[in-house]
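Consortium newsletter contribution from the modelling node. Members have asked for a concrete example of what our holo predictions look like. Here is one, prepared for the acetyl coenzyme *A complex that several groups have been discussing at recent meetings.
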Amino acid sequence: MRSIGAYVPKKVLTNEDLEKMVDTSDEWITKRTGIKTRHIASEEENTSDLGLEAAKLALKRAGLEAEDIDLLICATISPDYFCMPSTACMIAKKLGIANVPAMDISAACSGFIYALSTAKAYIESGMAKTVLIVGAEKLSAIVDWSDRTTCILFGDGAGAAVVAATDKKEEAIIDTNISADGKFYDYLITPGCGTERPCSEEVLKERACFIKMKGNETFKVAVKTLTNDVKELLEKNGISSEHITYFVPHQANYRILSAVANALGLNEKQCVITVDKYGNTSSASIPMAINEIFEEGKLKKGDLLLLDAFGGGFTWGSAILPFSPTTP
Ligand code: ACO
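And here is the predicted structure:
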């Protein structure tokens, strides 16, 4: 990973603001999730606009122009347009590049790790040299603001990274581990407006085009899966948890993150937590969290990152990689 960038929209929505919108309290949200604030995009900002800002920063920090990219991948579950064009195409257009493959990945909160894994495969097979991966979400547009069980969780934002070919083994992504199990498809779902239940007055009346979640059931599978897939990856690569500089999990819920970190024997200093500030930003949460430690001056060249995510599908994934910026 050559560089990292992120963007968050200006508007901040606090738990106190939510208390005025639904039957909830700052105390409940803080205790159950650790979330205090989240950012919300304006009507004029689409997912691709958030992704664009993060992408521009990642390119600048890698010392590259958009023209240097030979593959653009955007992970998102809140695309600008239903079905087509892809958000990746919109970001490419806004970056002013054409004749470069651009595609979206739909793997919910695991999307960024799926994108990283795809970039790795393209680079290792020689099909690409410099890949721009973006995780961008305007979840506020697909959240039901009358449903207190979900609307308190999500936020908007984007993160991006440049992943490039290298001859130096110590700079390359060490390994990724992605997987899925569709039997849990209805634990986290937007049931309406797809081909199973096309958009209709009835679907809209039921608010079925918004995110629905079986939170408690999701929580249990999330903790178990997030722990097991990382254990597998560390073991496979002969790396132990004390070698990890930063553990950057998908920021869904503070209770999930601390349970997983404890099970993996990781200490507080190793764990990157941003869920309190940004809530759950799905595919954007991991690159946004990496960007946070980068901008705080904590992330240095050669630091070993352990990424871990879980999301709708269910999908999950983990990755071990050194941070390898072009400049120290
Ligand atoms: N404010 C106040 N009370 C609430 C709220 C709220 N916002 N939401 C629910 N409650 C109530 C419920 O109605 C319930 O009341 P009852 O006992 O009278 O029936 C009670 O609080 C407990 O509800 P639970 O759903 O059991 O609460 P839980 O402790 O499970 O916390 C939460 C809910 C925070 C959603 C948790 O289950 C969670 O984080 N789940 C996992 C989320 C996740 O990991 N998602 C994966 C990634 S997201 C993606 O892929 C897009």
